[in-house]
Design a protein that fits this description.
Structural class: mainly alpha
Shape: globular
Mean pLDDT: 79
Number of strands: 2
Amino acid sequence: MPHILERFKRLPLAWIGLILMLPVTAHAGETSHTGTSSLVDLTGSGYGMAALALFVVAYGMVIFEEVLHMRKSKPVLTAAGLIWMIIAAAYAAAGDTHTAAAEARHHLLEFSELMLFLLAAMTYINTMEERNIFHWLRAKLVSSGMSLRGVFWVTGLLAFLISPVADNLTTALVMGAVSIAVGAGNKKFVTVSCINIVIAANAGGAFSPFGDITTLMVWQSGHVTFGQFFDLFLPSLINWLVPAFLMSLTIPRIKPQAAAEAVTVKMGGFAVVGLFIATIALTVTIHNTIHLPPVIGMMTGLGLLKLYGFHIKMRQRKLVLPLLTIDTNGHSNPELESAVKHKIEKDFNIFESFERIEWDTLMFFYGVVLCVGGLGTLGYLNLTSHLMYSDLGAMTANVLVGLFSSIVDNIPVMFAVLNMNPEMSHGQWLLVTLTAGVGGSLLSVGSAAGVALMGQARGTYTFMAHMRWSWAVALGYAASIGTHIWINADLM
């Protein structure tokens, strides 16, 4: 395959259009996600090269989002559609009109589970914000006398400890909301705090089967048992502590400005927090015991939130109406009653939490999942994995997996590794689990936590802002690998 790629690189660009018109020739195939057919290796064809070029251009536009002033979902959405059209055309030219559609549906299912999971988590976050939970927590942190540097360490530590149970994405959204509320008006603090939370959430998720989708995949494959994941605790902790210490030096020990007035939690606010915790517990339980997809638990929790929202509205109406709808003569005023009812419904409407969801982030996820899934269908992920493990060896390849995870989503990268199933020691399987989990912290777009926080702190936490600290994240990445090799030497 390398000689095919080298030969193709030397072709003039004008020939690529002609090659796209040629029928596809089947190479040694691989089993498709659907298990019903064999995928064609298109990595050396004009179809594959054109799709790869589209992805590179689209991702380049994401990287320069700040310069172009274009939302990141636009280029990847377009590229995703064009890539799958290229794939469908390639298979149709070979007389296969079913495989491309089946593969596309598989990746759409992956995205739908991710989107609905995010939809439920974001709605809870927005509802807690509307009920003043985060402003109340900010007021508590400020009143406790904690400095901005103290808040930086507390939110990072909580992200590291919560993500093994609540997954890194949900944890990052919750802690990010707290940091944004505490550092309101302090752009530098919010930026560094968001980077810290992303690193901590990804690191905490790496030593638990429930912390990240990739760790779950490794656990389900049987390469690492539940208890063996905790061998990665210390390397994961080092991965967070090294960059956190370096970033904390830039945060002054000043105290955040206190709120001008006392902050009170609106009716039902703490109950919403309880529902969110119960939803996470339900999600973990049903996935662990009866093996249902996590999205089922999250959407069930969303239904409970909507029901509780109705309860809040009815309770507000019952408590407030008798006090506000009586005129000065002690008689009921229908017009006033109607106005108060309207105000109550406007004050708490669960669908307003839906409206405030960062849809650009969700559409970006769609584009990335479909683009990367398309490249996998073309054979690029398998090609890369085979070249790495055959030519470079397990140690180097597993370190590179983490680097790839910062550019391409870690889920398809880990899927490619598991699908290839290279001969490795237990220590090397732990290493690839670690690197795939924490490697995404090197770039803001390298993990779901980073992408979600870019949407939550739009204009403050950006791709380039994260890039300025990538050197510190890289030091933590190297330190975590060194720690794993040292303390788990007997497993390597």
